[in-house]
Predict the 3D structure of the following.
Amino acid sequence: MRTQVAIIGAGPAGLLLAQLLNQQGIDSVILEARSRHYIENRVRAGVLEHQSVDILNEAGVGARMMREGLVHDGVIIQFAGVAHRIDLASLTGHGVMIYGQQEVVKDLVEARIQSGRPLYFEVDNVSIHDFDADAPYVKFRHHGAEQRLDCDFVAGCDGFHGVCRASLPPSRIELFERVYPFAWLGILADAEPASEELIYAHHERGFALLSMRSEAVSRLYLQCKPDENLDEWPDDRVWDELQKRFDRSDGFQLRVGPITQKSVTPMRSFVAEPMRHGRLFLTGDAAHIVPPTGAKGMNLAIADVKVLSLALGAHYHESRDDRLESFSAVCLRRIWKVQRFSWWMTSMLHQFDEDNAFDRRRQIAELDYVVTSKVASQSLAENYIGLPLDPNGG
Ligand code: FAD
Ligand code: DHB
């Protein structure tokens, strides 16, 4: 079997890359370890930057998002029992879109099937070969049969635990990492969201976040231990803890309902440099992880593959390789700014050390500054709605 671009992984990065290549008439094969049902039901991120919305629309997969997604022009920062609204739209001219990652994935899988190009689910034993030479290939097993896929390029879109980054000798990549001493316990609940906009709440018991998926479904998170045991969190305890952390002087009350999903997500900042190794390109979580407080994980994956798709387009249609050569540097420049923002939001809003009264006062002062200073709230807003993406190198 032969293709132009072998794409490993059918998360947002791999699926969107395939669609952007298809629009340019470039052939690809996607290899995914899990089943279609699994990837379409994996509950993860929910906030799309305005540029991600534009990219999905331009890719021809935005129609349902525009109908069902919720446009938010503001976000609430809560601390010391008081809510403060950051008016994203008036500070930046843009808002964000609330639309679940699994919905983005469903729309992209549908587009892939419509395109008639191959997407293999439930493959195993994937290995990548000769990406430093001119003729790379991928070996994998599908329905028990060994297969070989020859290609011009390999796109490593296989997430943090994938095979692509792991295939590189340690001497060829530089890793930058910070692991945080906490995780998020996330729930999905059949409950009307108690707020029209997201609430990021600083509380001495730990951070909490109110988000949503629709007018009838709430998505909530609370800071917990990295090794938190979900068996110790029956639904009543989750709601009780959330209510304590969202407690406000104006009597705000959460709306409770049946919890349909519960999970614990560890938190880390991680970058693997560079993102190009010969004919292998790493994108999305395969190359970097951000703590979720800035809502950036899926957006970074979308930005990476936008840059890569244009670089591959220039290779095939203009016989130019300068964009492939600058891919890693162009992506990393923006990625590090997004890393900084995600780290900053995480540091400002979470409890790090029970005994550190100084840090708590400092966090409150920082939050107070952010919500009262026009330039500070504008800085938060500018990063939250998404820093400009210049796929040509800015
Ligand atoms: P992924 O979505 O991880 O996709 C990679 C794909 O590759 C997967 O489908 C995987 O099955 C497949 N794969 C892996 N190994 C192989 C292999 N060897 N062969 C073939 N296929 C393979 N971000 C937020 O902003 N907010 C959140 O609340 C949030 N919650 C998260 C919760 C969890 C549990 C995780 C893991 C991430 C979360 N993120 C969140 C981050 C966000 O979801 C990711 O940044 C986003 O999924 C990145 O997309 P991706 O396509 O790069 O990787
Ligand atoms: C959601 C996740 C985030 O990490 C975030 O910062 C905001 C919202 C969500 O899942 O809706």
